[in-house]
Amino acid sequence: MAKVELIVNGQSVEKEVEDRTLLAQFLRDTLQLTGTHVGCDTSSCGACTILVDGKAVKSCTILAVQADGSHIKTIEGMATNGALHPLQEGFKEEHGLQCGFCTPGMIMTAADLLSHNNDPSEQEIREALEGNFCRCTGYHNIVRSIQHAAKKIRSGEAAVSA
Fold first, then answer.
1. Domain that holds residue 33
2. How far is CA 102 from the centre of its chain?
3. Does residue 90 sit in the same domain as residue 139?
4. Which of 77, 103, 130 lies at the terminal end of a domain, its last residue?
5. In Å, what is the CA distance from 81 to each residue of 16, 84, 90, 114, 138?
6. 86-124, pLDDT tens digit by residue?
7. Of 104, 87, 100, nearest to 153 (Cα)?
8. Residue 98 contacts by C-beta under 8 Å, 6 or more apart in sequence?
9. Model confidence over 25-77: pLDDT tens digits?
10. C-alpha dihedral over 81, 30, 46, 115, to 10 degrees?
11. What is the SS3 string spanning the chain?
């Protein structure tokens, strides 16, 4: 067993975990943050993507103990004071989701992209999403959803932190 100390969605967390516990399992099973989905256990699908110190990371590829001391943001931490994050709003407005299983990972990957490029081209969005699979929608509405969010962020309508 090992102790991990993290900041998860702005809250300090200190827990004992088994050394072999994946960060995805820790988030889902220990912290009950079930928006982080596990779809493949091989890092192929991207459903488990979260932000670790502001960077998109597939949480099924990292142990909870490796994240010790990190700032973690999951889909549950994206809304602010009850207001949807522009990416969440974009997925709603532009019909970027269908079953919703891949959506949290897509949003977290897009948050990383928009944190360093608030005006990505369609090609840049598609390249950023290469590690995230959607089996329901295709990617056209997902790309439009991210473009919607980027436009809102650029216009200053939304203060955003990844």
1. 2-77
2. 10
3. yes
4. 77
5. 30, 8, 18, 21, 31
6. 999 999 999 998 899 999 999 999 999 999 999 999 999
7. 87
8. 134, 136, 137
9. 999 999 999 999 998 878 889 999 999 999 999 999 999 999 999 999 999 99
10. 40
11. CEEEEEEECCEEEEEEECCCCEHHHHHHHHCCCCCCCCCCCCCCCCCCEEEECCEEEEHHHCEHHHHCCCEEECHHHCCECCECCHHHHHHHHCCCCCCCCCHHHHHHHHHHHHHHCCCCCHHHHHHHCCCCCCCCCCCHHHHHHHHHHHHHHHCCCCCCCC
Q: Which two tokens stand for residue 75?
A: 């889909």
CB 129 within 8 A of CB 139: yes
Structure tokens at 159: 């203060």
CA distances from 111 to 18, 21, 29, 59 (A): 30, 26, 24, 15
Same domain, residue pair 48 and 67: yes
**Residue 39 structure tokens:** 């779809």
Half-sphere exposure of 23 (CA within 13 A, CB side): 29
Q: Which two tokens stand for residue 93?
A: 């407005």
